[in-house]
Amino acid sequence: MIGPADLRSALGAMDIYLLDQLLRGRIDEGHRIMDAGCGGGRNVAYFLQAGFDVTGLDADPQAVAAVRALAARVAPRVAADCFRAETLASSSFPDGCAEVVVSSAVLHFARDDQDFDAMLAGSWRLLAPGGLFFARLASSIGIEQHVRPERAGSRRCRLPDGSDRYLVDEPLLMTRARELGGRLLDPLKTTVVQNQRAMTTWVMERER
């Protein structure tokens, strides 16, 4: 029997909604995984240990150093250059380098509309046709009356929990999906945390 400690060891701190995609068979052995905004590697620990081809990028050099250390410990076959200190908008990874692109709690750090679109386009560029795009990001869905925009018309808002985030909504995500050539694999799903913040899961297949 697999116990809780074994699960924690195998899965690390993987986003539960990303785990859902894995359990539903949408991420297969042999898929190349790109963590676009990898932080210290919480979402790639399992994939590294399971032998997947894993790459990642993050604008924070300290985060990249941490994920490189993780890879050296659990998957020494993986070259350090597979994880790079770069921005999403201007990374050196080639177009279509991954069948799965993970963007977990990243896009809501955009400064404004232009920055959001640049981050999104830079992430999408890395996804191969037919690939899976998984994003979790802050939204205003379900908490519209509780957020305060920085200025009129701005999507950059102060949340009740005291954080400042770029907040998406359903019309924006659906519009961007059409523009990018993405097909929703799941309906948009939003978790509202006691009116303090809302996180939306956005899962698409790249059709072109």
Task: Give your account of this protein's structure.
The structure is a single chain. With 208 residues, the chain is α/β, with parallel strands linked by helices. 28% of the residues lie in helices and 28% in strands. The protein contains six helices and eleven strands. Strands 1, 2, 3, 4, 5, 9, 10 and 11 form an eight-stranded mixed sheet that branches. Strands 6-7-8 form a three-stranded antiparallel sheet, with no helix packed on it. Strand 4, helix 5 (113-125) and strand 5 (127-138) form a beta-alpha-beta unit.
Characteristic key phrases:
8-stranded mixed beta sheet, 208 residues, alpha/beta, 6 helices
In short:
Helices cover 28% and strands 28% of the residues. The chain has 208 residues and is an alpha/beta fold.
Count, helices: 6
Question: Main β-sheet, in a few words?
Answer: 8 strands, mixed
Structural class: alpha/beta
Hey, roughly how much beta strand do the residues contain?
Answer: 25-35%
Order of helices and strands: HHEHEHEEHEEEEHEEE
Number of strands: 11
Helix content: 25-40%
| Overall radius of gyration | 17 Å
Report low-confidence residues grouped into runs of 5 or more: none
Span between termini = 43 Å
Can you lay out the helices and strands and say which pair or pack?
Blueprint: H1 4-11, H2 16-23, E1 32-36, H3 45-49, E2 53-58, H4 61-74, E3 83-85, E4 98-104, H5 113-125, E5 127-138, E6 148-149, E7 156-158, E8 164-166, H6 170-180, E9 182-184, E10 189-193, E11 197-206
Parallel strand pairs: 1-2, 1-4, 2-3, 4-5
Antiparallel strand pairs: 5-11, 6-7, 7-8, 9-11, 10-11
